[in-house]
Amino acid sequence: MIDVDQLRVRFGDNEVVKGVSFQVPAGDSFGIVGESGSGKSTVLRALSGLNNAWTGHIAINGEAVGPRRDRAFFRKVQMVFQDPYGSLHPRQTIDRILSEPLLVHGIGEIERRIERALAEVALPAAVRFRYPHQLSGGQRQRVAIARALIAEPEVLLLDEPTSALDVSVQAEILNLLADLREQRKLTYILVSHNLAVVAHLCPRVGVMIGGQMVEQLSADDLRGGHTRHPHTAELRSLSVGLEEVP
Amino acid sequence: MLVDIQNLRIAFETRTSVFEAVRGVSLNIGTEKLGIVGESGSGKSLTARALMRLLPTNARVTADRLTFDGVDILKADERAMLRIRGKRAGFILQDPKYSLNPVMTIGRQVTEAWRTHKGGGRKEAKEAAIDLLAQVRIREPRRVYDLYPHEVSGGMGQRIMIAMMLAPDPQLLIADEPTSALDATVQAEILRLMEDLVSQRGMGLLLISHDLPLVSHFCDRVAVMYAGRVVEELAAGDLSKAQHPYTRGLLNCLPSLIHPKPRLPVLNRDEAWLKS
Ligand SMILES: Nc1ncnc2c1ncn2[C@@H]1O[C@H](COP(=O)(O)OP(=O)(O)O)[C@@H](O)[C@H]1O
Ligand SMILES: Nc1ncnc2c1ncn2[C@@H]1O[C@H](COP(=O)(O)OP(=O)(O)O)[C@@H](O)[C@H]1O
Ligand SMILES: [Mg+2]
Ligand SMILES: [Mg+2]
């Protein structure tokens, strides 16, 4: 479904993604882990069409996509960011924020779809006429997910979607993402620095360091410590070390 | 007892309402490492700031007792407070970017921090500063001495902040989410560094974080805050024996690498937790 081959991204003289390749079958979820600056977000931004200064090959559903994307692409592929506050227009009501993708793609039944989208992410209907600053961080991230889903995409690109949230809210959002994937047969790529979060949602994981994806392994192998690259082992042992509650 | 807090209350008043953000917190800190955990908005930062009298001007503070090494914080004059802040207690915040002066070299900032408290000549202060940089395990202290804050990483910036806080030999280090902006590898190094320095120098540490497992690894005791109160206080080693449903909920809702959970338990907040 998603095929990335030898993806390279540079900013000026600085190559920050250095030939990354991976595949994600339809309905599957792929996780990308790595420390800050390793190039995770840059990979997602190239995939989502937010950055078009890349080389290599990207195909979705067997169809090669170029640096410039058409409207049909944006209906199929949507992105959710770490900071829902920064990604939601502060002066627009939730109603307006959710209507926009429908208007852009010429999708009808706006009323019914907004009601359904809010229900689907478990937000009360009253939220509809509020502004982002009147919601909690968790509610804002639910709005961002509702907006990403409202035009019925096939692929969600998730960049640290729970990193800014309290752990109790993180649990709710991760459960929501798992349920939506099941109901809608969605394909996910999830970027996070948190290995437990990634392994929870993604059966396969890629590990990045310095712009390279140095290892791809199953979540089970990551859990079990069957790693090949020393950086994977290092990240794993830090994560495991903190997990053990005394 | 280094810090004695009894029934601390912090409220914000507007024309129409009063919001009590901290509602009767009691804590003691000796020469030990105390962690405060809780979700955002639970009152962790306000509690720490009250101790340094660094609260927003619209905050109304009351307490049955609020003392630092015997000094009554509620009554102390500004001169006494200056002796406490940055001298007898060091305060380390999440992002060193906002605490370091961007137009002054790192060396000069550490040197000045030293001279302010210890006096002495320039040469002596410079050597002391380089020694402090080495103590926070900066590998090439002489090279780093001449750099500007924007030329170093976040982890290095945090080490420099710690070095500056150590200059006056404080009795207490207060660290409010000191590693939340750092990567896991760097986070572990910084916390281990603070842990070592605090034990070597016989200081107290107040570590504030939203990360319960993390805090329990680096502290002796953990106070769990919920909605402006301490709902449970435990020895860090007894975390798995936590009684309060909020503490247990915080632990259960975490995804785990070693123990996969098909679905994450969510926190069902009980009205009764607000009353304690
Ligand atoms: N717009 C940009 N201009 C210049 N450099 C950038 C830009 N975006 C990212 N970078 C650099 O690319 C590298 C990878 O960044 P990023 O993909 O954001 O990493 P991650 O998401 O893994 O933390 C970093 O060194 C970052 O500074
Ligand atoms: N200057 C202020 N005016 C009004 N409310 C405030 C102010 N500062 C903090 N608060 C409120 O006090 C509560 C506790 O804040 P804080 O101690 O910063 O929480 P934490 O550090 O646990 O995230 C929050 O609900 C916050 O909104
Ligand atoms: Mg990123
Ligand atoms: Mg805080």
TrEMBL record, chain A:
Catalytic activity field: glutathione(out) + ATP + H2O = glutathione(in) + ADP + phosphate + H(+)
Keywords annotated in UniProt: ATP-binding, Cell inner membrane, Cell membrane, Membrane, Nucleotide-binding, Translocase, Transport
Main location: membrane
InterPro entries: AAA+_ATPase, ABC_transp_ATP-bind, ABC_transporter-like_ATP-bd, ABC_transporter-like_CS, P-loop_NTPase
Organism in which the protein naturally occurs: Microvirga puerhi
Domain ABC transporter, residue spans: 2-235
Broad class of enzyme this protein falls into: translocase
Gene Ontology terms for molecular function: ATP binding
Entry EC number(s): 7.4.2.10
Name the UniProt record assigns to this protein: Glutathione import ATP-binding protein GsiA
Subunit structure, interactors included: The complex is composed of two ATP-binding proteins (GsiA), two transmembrane proteins (GsiC and GsiD) and a solute-binding protein (GsiB).
Task of the protein: Part of the ABC transporter complex GsiABCD involved in glutathione import. Responsible for energy coupling to the transport system.
TrEMBL record, chain B:
Subcellular location: Cell inner membrane
SUPFAM superfamilies: P-loop containing nucleoside triphosphate hydrolases
SMART domains: AAA
Keyword hit for Zinc-finger: no
Matches recorded under CDD domains: ABC_NikE_OppD_transporters (cd03257)
Domain ABC transporter positions: 3-252
Tree of life domain: Bacteria
PROSITE patterns, sorted: ABC_TRANSPORTER_2
Coiled coil feature spans: none
Membrane topology (UniProt): Peripheral membrane protein
Gene3D superfamilies: P-loop containing nucleotide triphosphate hydrolases
Keyword field: ATP-binding, Cell membrane, Membrane, Nucleotide-binding, Transport
Location (main, coarse): membrane
GO MF term list: ATP binding
Family: Belongs to the ABC transporter superfamily.
Entry protein name: ABC transporter ATP-binding protein
